[in-house]
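Supplementary notes for students who missed Thursday's class. We covered one full example, reproduced here. Read the sequence, then the structure, then the short commentary at the end.
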Amino acid sequence: MSANQLFAASYYSERLADAKAIYLTAEEFRVKADGIADDTAALQGAIDQVQDRRNQGILFIPSGRYRLTKTVYIWPGIRLIGYGATRPVFVLGANTPGFQQSPTYMLFFAGGRPRSGSNGTPPDASPGTFYSAISNIDIEMQEGNPGAVGVRAHYAQHCFLAHMDFHIGSALAGIHDGGNVAEDVHFYGGQYGIWTRKPSPGWQFSIIDATFEGQREAAIREHEAGLTLIRPQFKNVPTAIAIDEGYSDELWIKDARMEDIIGPAIIISNEKSARTEINAENVICRGVPTFALYRESGKREAAPAPSYEVKIFSHGLHYDDIGADATIQDVYDTAALSGTAPSPKSDILGLPPMKQWVNVRTLGASGDGIADDTDAIKKAIVEHSTIYFPSGQYRVSDTITLRQDTVLIGLHPSVTRIVLADSTPAFQGVGSPKPLLETPTGGTNIVSGIGLYTNGINPRAVAAKWGGARDSMMEDVRFLGGHGTIDPNATAEESGKVWRQIYNDNHSGDSNPKRRWDGQYPSLWITGGGTFVDIWTPSTFAQAGLYISNTATGGRVYQLSSEHHVRNEVTLDHASNWEIYALQTEEERGEGGFALPVDIRDSSNITFANLHMYRVVGAYQPFPHAVSVTNSSNIRFRNLHCYSDSKVSFDSAVYDQTHGFEIRQRELAWLTMSGHAPQTIEKKPSSVVAENVKMDKVAGGFFNISGGTVDHAGNIYFVDAHWQTIYRWLVATKQLSKVRDNPLDPVNLFFDKAGNLIVISYSGNGTVYSFKPDAPNDEITLLAPVPTAERPGMTAVLPVDYWRNENDFLDSISQNKPFQYVSPDGTTFFPVAADFVNGELYYGSKLDDPLRAFGLAPATPDHPFYVSDENGEKTYSAKVGVNGELSNLKLFAERGGESVAEDEKGNVYIAAGQIIVYDPKGNLIDTIEVPERPSQLLFGGKDGKTLFILARSSLYAIQTKFRRR
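Structure (token representation):
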């Protein structure tokens, strides 16, 4: 569609009956819908009424032009859906007061009603904002509104924008801070079509079947968005995608079309970092003289011809196969084109014409959650091909089996549900799986906008058993159970209580012990193929959220969130020919400590692109790997992001179980697993390890050790925080002993010059205490924080690693700390921020720097201090001030991890999967392999030449050529 076509076809051309929905009609809300009168208050009042009556639900908006003069707030769980012969349009009139400042929003997805004391400003949508959406409504911004933005969309799962045109004109952008899914969206004009960053939960942002035309600066400006672009089209713009300076992204582009792009089509920043993961396949270009520009180096990938195909473009950390060396690489595989390549066909299936839809309520279903609707639904399936489910809970007592062409349509999967009551007889006992919903082999079924809920006491239940053909589809489906499962009839306050009841008091099970976690078959079990888009499957009761088995039919998965399972999030077993894009997994503290996110067995020809795997900040249970691959071939990973702001991220990203080989690098752009055994790479003699020595495992059996320090004699002290135990390894006797096991939550240790051991504790607010290592167990001295002061001649002790979520590492760690703890002998001090002293929580955990760090180290003004950005995978040198502040930070190495240590020659050792060693100039000189992932590095021993390696469950040691600094 060109820019002069103002109105797209209406996706919902007729009014749908839904007794629980609200309709924006003139009779009830005095709306004019003429594009002239101000309809802001009427629209806001209707949205408020949805929340007041139902907490979450649907506001239907009929055809018309609705002029807005102020920001309209959309509360969580509310969907605005347009209908009628023409698509409704929200209009921002010319020169509307207030929209000259940037950014000012027409529509703002909020995280709730305004809090008390907030001056009436609603909180932004957040990782806890679910189900909100706009569909089949256009946005029009007229002249004189340079700061205007159509939609702020900073929300989380099952939120989307769909079937929308954004006529931005001279305004700022169509979408700012987007997230989850945007589908069938089209942008005309504006400084940007989309201006976005990392979505609020950190997941990917998938944009499917979008077009961009006529933007003044870039079609998309972004950073850290996990941007997943499927079949995008860019025309007549300076740049298609610009990544902000200093930032990375996991950018995946598939089946794109680019035309008349005068500047570089893609601008890549942070090009030397492993956090920059860029991949594109099948991009057709015409009039695109520069395909990619690397911002820092100025390197360009030029057009090979006026019209050309980019078969593959890739930039980032590459593994050609399991066991191969990893390097930052570029791939630019192109071919000249002589003709016009057709646009790729969308695999997002359109719904049948609305005249074919039959309302299941008119066929006898009650949807009240009490009456048994099984017979009514089965009869509807026999008699009709397309069945519409208005808001309601449709309780069934037997499998709902679809015919070959049955289509089920709802418009809100949290308020429109097909449910099993707990203890439904047909789903009890030990036996073969019994689906709640089942599609036939080879079916062309569509299931859209419906929640499927098997509850917790139905052990034979499978929520959906899918045998469909490649041209079948499941879209906008929520597998209920666990997080985000809210009673659609409850108030906001009541919903919060229900949410909290998913756990017992210690988060080890459901609040009802009869509802057993990991007590049902998988939620979504695919034995066929098809397209699966915008799926959320977090039921802790299920064996897995997604299970694909015994099928070569193949299919595509777009933006599926599988979370909170006990054993597996996703399993592929004897599966072939799948493309899985923007898969996100998350392991919660209570249920997910031992969960393997992705298990691939006996499978082939699988692509994962923009795969995000995350363990929550409160996690404490270490786990070895995020992906396990067994007896499988041609498994392709393009952009793999494996992370945790806890101290127990996965030890390795990918484990080849067939050959017993692991990749510990957590960020990579390219890995193809052929299935062959890894090649043996000959190692060069070490430049830092002593000759003819081997690494010794000196102690083992720990839960998760870190926080260590070394005394004046070279003995090592360290913490196993889970067991609240401080250990000591004596180098003279080679013996391990417990120093203290008081229930005082030790985390990190350091010594002052008099031999006092200072302990940083997780307990309370700002707890720091000290004792002599051989003093009686009850002798403890509490240290109190004092205001920061210059302490010349004293030694500061600082974290050597930091975790920052918002790319603010340099600014954050260079800030002066307002408090200090001074050691008993007055020689050493420990600077801290206010959050440590106050005991502030981040999602229920203390994430302040000295507690999150894997270790501390002494820092003096006369020598550079090395510090690692764990999330950014970089290490910096810094100058230390007399009050312990860090300044003049300079990039030292494009590697970062859990720990940093330095020897007397100035060589720097970085714990980043293995031990990576750099000379003082930042040149890579060695890699020391460790049997387990190293967490902390400390030089000790009698001569200071023993490198102790704390590695989760074990303590290792190896003799080096050089002593500690």
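Commentary. The first strand starts at residue 22 and ends at 23. The helical segments are 26-29, 40-54, 374-383, 492-500, 809-813, 834-838, 849-852. If anything here is unclear, bring it to office hours.
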